[in-house]
Amino acid sequence: MIKLVYCIHRHPDITRDAFHKYWLEEHGPKVKSVAASIGATRYVQSHKCLDELNETFQKGRGLADPYDGITEVWFESVEHMQAASATDAGVAAGRFLVEDESRFIDFSRSTVFMSEEHEIF
C-alpha cells in the first residue's frame, strides 16, 4: 500500500466550523464518488480538535501553527494509482477534486506528499 498525506490549512476567510462541515459533509462524499476513478481504496479525514492541548504542544516544542486537518488516501500500489489516474475518468476526477478543494483549502499554506507506512506497534 501507498498513501497520500494532505496536510491542510483552511482558507483564512472560512471559519473552522464551516471548514470542517464542508470538508466532511460536502467534499468527503465527492471523494467517495470518484474513489474508483482515482484508484483509492481508503480515505480518512482527521480534523483538528483540542485547541488548548495543541497550544501546549506548540509552545513546549516551539512548533509552527497546526494544520486544520489531515487527509489520508490509500492506494493498492503506485502503479495502480498511476494507471487509474491516467484514464479519462481519473483525469476528470482529479480536476473535479482540485476544483472543489480550492473552495475551502489554502493551497499556499498546505502540503501534500506520498508516503509509505512503517508500523511500529
Which percent bin holds the helix content?
40-55%
Helical segment count: 4
The coarse overall form would be globular
Secondary-structure element order, N to C: EHEHEHHE
Indicate the low-confidence ranges by residue numbers. none
- Largest sheet features: 4 strands, antiparallel
Give the N-terminus to C-terminus distance in angstroms: 18 Å
Helix/sheet category: alpha+beta
What is the C-alpha radius of gyration, as a whole number of Å? 16 Å
Query: Strand fraction band?
Result: 15-25%
What order do the strands of the largest sheet run in, or round the barrel if closed? 2-3-1-4
Strand segment count: 4
Quaternary = single chain
Q: How much is the average pLDDT?
A: 92
The gist of it:
The protein has 121 residues and is of the alpha+beta class. The protein has helices spanning 16-38, 51-61, 78-85, 88-101, and strands spanning 2-8, 40-47, 69-75, 111-115.
Considering the chains and any ligands shown, give keywords for the structure.
46% helix; 121 residues; four-stranded antiparallel β-sheet; alpha+beta; single chain
Give a verbal description of the structure:
This protein has 121 residues and is an alpha+beta fold. It is built from four helices and four strands; from the N terminus they run E-H-E-H-E-H-H-E. The chain has a four-stranded antiparallel sheet. Helix 1 runs antiparallel to helix 4 (88-101). The longest helix is centred in the first third of the chain and has 23 residues, at 16-38. The mean pLDDT is 92.
